[in-house]
Amino acid sequence: MRPEHEWFTPEQLRRYYFAYEAVAVVVVLSVVGLLAVTGALAAMHPWVLAVGGGVLLLGFGYLTWWVPAFARTAEYRFTDDEVEYRRGVFFRQQTTVPYNRITNVGTAQGPIQRLVKSGAVKVHTAGFGGQTGAELTVDGVTDFQEIQEQILGRVRARPGTATEGDDVVEPTATADSPDESTELLGEIRRIRELLEHGRQA
């Protein structure tokens, strides 16, 4: 269980992203090896090989720098009313999800996540415009099932309220309201008096 009102960094997020990068490197090297075996690599122009190799080196070099930089900025916090998530290497972003808007809390653990002994907690809300994805994901944590229960405990402890985008219909006056009933009764009495005067005449 994570302490509340304190920011925490996912302890396995860096390893998780580096594992994805390692898989990408293996895939690229496999493709290059296949091209070399079939002779397609030797048939390419030298400038094509130079440009392609440079792009790959720059791409993987950037990822190697970006992963730890992003992992240092990714932080979560559980408060009395909401879940908060802030991150961003170049541009800082913050996502806030109130507990009373949460509709579902699920967990996920893929092969790479199992490899680094971590998982993800997906927080779903009443989405807008048919939104189906998670509003917020707590990724790269080892205690993902405990975090799921912690969030669910907060959600169950408070009643649900209408979310943004719901139509709130104000109650309108009907014929049964006291004011209209009094007016209707007065009209009936006046009509009865007119009818009685007509009979007497």
Automatic annotation (TrEMBL):
The keyword Nucleotide-binding does not apply. It comes from the Archaea. It comes from Salinirubrum litoreum. The chain crosses the membrane at residues 20-41, 47-67. The lineage of its organism: Archaea, Methanobacteriati, Methanobacteriota, Stenosarchaea group, Halobacteria. Residues 72-151 form the YdbS-like PH domain. Coiled coil: none annotated. Signal peptide: none annotated. The keyword Transmembrane applies. Keywords: Membrane, Transmembrane, Transmembrane helix. This is PH domain-containing protein. Residues 157-181 are annotated as: Disordered.
